[in-house]
């Protein structure tokens, strides 16, 4: 495993006006650091995660990549509290290193929208209960504008394209201003051009809002375009921990990124030592 001294290569911009004025207090949390220590997960005799040690600083964007079945989604589910580890520890820390319980949200490959609710009401679902309905509607409209769906707030999900539906799912995750956002192959079902525009959108909202992001993807190009750091999982272990030391936003076709993509592919396919 290659360990890295993390540096922030992106400047988190000052909080945008829409976020200050329209984000409700409910759920809102500062970006949190994530620490995994000796994390293990078994399903019966199947040892899926085998002693994962990983520290993700607050605000970092990490991509997790690896062969099908290597444990990526299991790791993400444990991070989100959707599954329990068999052994080891998961801790969140605030900027002072104190234990934290950040607001965490996840976006899946399928948008999972409720078909009987409008686009705006689907986003309001992301706020949970206990928030004034006018404040919730205002927050939903603002975040929908941020994901360029300001024209579609009253539309039904069935009348949107696949990319638009996934932008609603992203807006539903962002409306409560999470400190940690998990992305489980969120662009996997989209065509190549929509993927690129969604990558730009994810990169922009991350730079603007500054949450900690963990992205599971099969796409090495997506990983090096979005992440500060890419973790390659192999049979439940970290096979490579690769920093991507370039400022955001990143250009497609950059030869330095192409070289990193090659290294990642070799690590995923287990051909690092071959010539
Ligand atoms: N709830 C479960 N019960 C039993 N086995 C499970 C469960 N969830 C995952 N597994 C097993 O854990 C292993 C890792 O699955 P996981 O979904 O984490 O892999 P992945 O790397 O995300 O795969 P993919 O890239 O195909 O989505 C697989 O062998 C899978 O069958």
TrEMBL record:
Domain ABC transporter: 34-260
Assigned protein family: Belongs to the ABC transporter superfamily.
GO molecular function, one term: ATP binding
Keyword Repeat appears in the UniProt entry: no
Matching SMART domains: AAA
Keywords noted in UniProt: ATP-binding, Cell membrane, Membrane, Nucleotide-binding, Translocase, Transport
Keyword Membrane listed: yes
Pfam entry (one): ABC_tran
Name assigned to this protein: ATP-binding cassette domain-containing protein
Lineage, opening ranks: Bacteria, Pseudomonadati, Pseudomonadota, Alphaproteobacteria, Hyphomicrobiales
Membrane-crossing residue ranges in chain numbering: none
């Amino acid at each position: 495993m290659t360990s890295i001294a993390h540096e922030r290569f992106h400047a988190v911009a000052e909080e945008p006006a829409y976020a200050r004025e329209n984000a409700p207090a409910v759920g809102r949390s500062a970006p949190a650091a994530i620490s995994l220590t000796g994390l293990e997960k078994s399903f019966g005799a199947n040892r899926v995660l085998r002693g994962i040690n990983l520290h993700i600083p607050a605000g970092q964007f990490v991509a997790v990549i690896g062969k099908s079945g290597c444990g990526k989604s299991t790791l993400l589910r444990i991070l989100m509290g959707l599954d329990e580890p068999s052994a080891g520890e998961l801790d969140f820390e605030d900027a002072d290193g104190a234990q934290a319980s950040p607001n965490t949200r996840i976006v899946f490959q399928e948008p999972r929208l409720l078909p009987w609710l409008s686009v705006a009401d689907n986003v309001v679902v992301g706020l949970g209960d206990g928030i004034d309905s006018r404040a919730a509607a205002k927050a939903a409209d603002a975040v929908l504008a941020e994901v360029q769906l300001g024209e579609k707030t009253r539309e039904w999900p069935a009348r949107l394209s696949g990319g638009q539906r996934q932008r609603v799912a992203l807006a539903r995750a962002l409306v409560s201003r999470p400190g940690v956002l998990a992305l489980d192959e969120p662009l996997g079902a989209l065509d190549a051009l929509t993927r690129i525009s969604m990558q730009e959108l994810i990169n922009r909202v991350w730079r603007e809002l500054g949450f900690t992001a963990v992205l599971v993807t099969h796409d090495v190009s997506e990983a090096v375009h979005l992440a500060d750091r890419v973790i390659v999982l192999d049979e439940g272990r970290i096979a490579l921990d690769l920093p991507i030391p370039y400022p955001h936003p990143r250009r497609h076709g950059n030869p330095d990124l192409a070289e990193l993509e090659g290294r990642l592919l070799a690590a995923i396919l287990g051909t690092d030592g071959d010539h």
